């Protein structure tokens, strides 16, 4: 029986159908400047919406899989702490013993996760810092460190063949790793920086995410009715967003289960 996460990742390309439709229409109207510009501007908004939706869907699917398999006890300690934050102020160091006892109690029960503690606030843009925090809340650390100072940074050379091969490879590892539960994610099959020593370091990916959000903000909030990305810039943006999405899926699936090494 396949997992809920498997179904999400297997249909990864289908999630981009709306954006693909807009871009195909834009290509057909490239000689009609107003229509072309409008379609390009609309695609920028949908790209960020796709990223935001994907982050939430990954977390929802993973929690559903964990609950369906009664796997709370085997999830990461940090994930359990995040869950306990609904009941105890986990930021208070004096509460650490109570949190530990609460987790021990939950481990012996058929505890079901709720999704709310793991989602960011409604309406809050998926900034680089938000993505990093979502990763931290399930047991990871320094999300962008995994794709910094490694071959994945070649994505910024804008070699479409390289980027597409990387995307396909990441999808394959993710789909294969979530076909059954518990997940078996082979991170070593992707050129991640598994040493991940770039803690608190500004990186190309961090800048990219925040600049993409600025472009979306400019369109969605009517800051400018003229400025937009070119078609080429949009296509390169999509490649990088897909890499971030797939990285998020791979790392979250890996880190949420404490039995994975």
Uncertain spans: none
| Shape annotation | elongated
Characterize the largest beta sheet: strand count, sense, and whether it forms a barrel.
Answer: none
* Count of helix runs: 9
Mean pLDDT: 90
Strand tally: 0
Distance between the termini: 24 Å
Protein described:
- With 261 residues, the protein is mainly α.
- 55% of the residues lie in helices and 0% in strands.
- It is elongated and about 65 Å long.
- The mean pLDDT is 90.
Which helices and strands occur, and which strands form pairs?
Layout: H1 4-10, H2 17-28, H3 33-68, H4 77-84, H5 96-107, H6 128-136, H7 160-177, H8 204-220, H9 231-255
What is the compact description of this entry?
By secondary structure, this protein is an all-alpha fold. It is 55% helix and 0% strand.
Which structural traits does this protein have?
261 residues, mainly alpha, elongated
């Amino acid at each position: 029986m396949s997992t809920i996460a498997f179904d999400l990742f297997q249909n990864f390309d289908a999630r981009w159908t709306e954006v693909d439709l807009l871009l195909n229409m834009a290509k057909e109207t490239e000689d009609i400047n107003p229509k072309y510009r409008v379609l390009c501007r609309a695609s920028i908004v949908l790209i960020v919406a796709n990223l935001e939706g994907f982050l939430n869907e990954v977390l929802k699917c993973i929690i559903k899989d964990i609950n369906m398999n009664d796997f709370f006890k085997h999830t990461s300690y940090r994930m359990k702490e995040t869950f306990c934050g609904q009941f105890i102020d986990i930021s208070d160091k004096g509460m650490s013993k109570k949190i530990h006892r609460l987790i021990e109690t939950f481990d012996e029960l058929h505890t079901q996760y709720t999704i709310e503690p793991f989602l960011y606030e409604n309406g809050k843009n998926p900034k680089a810092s938000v993505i990093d925090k979502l990763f931290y809340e399930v047991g990871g650390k320094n999300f962008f460190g995994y794709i910094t100072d490694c071959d994945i940074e070649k994505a910024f050379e804008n070699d479409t063949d390289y980027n597409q091969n990387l995307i396909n490879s990441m999808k394959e590892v993710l789909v294969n790793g979530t076909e059954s539960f518990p997940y078996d994610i082979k991170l070593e099959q992707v050129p991640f920086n598994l040493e991940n020593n770039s803690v608190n370091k500004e990186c190309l990916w961090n800048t990219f995410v925040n600049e993409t959000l600025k472009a979306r903000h400019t369109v969605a909030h009517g800051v400018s009715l003229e400025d937009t990305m070119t078609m080429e810039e949009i296509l390169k943006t999509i490649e990088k967003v897909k890499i971030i999405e797939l990285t998020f899926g791979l790392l979250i699936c890996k880190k949420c289960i404490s039995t994975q090494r």
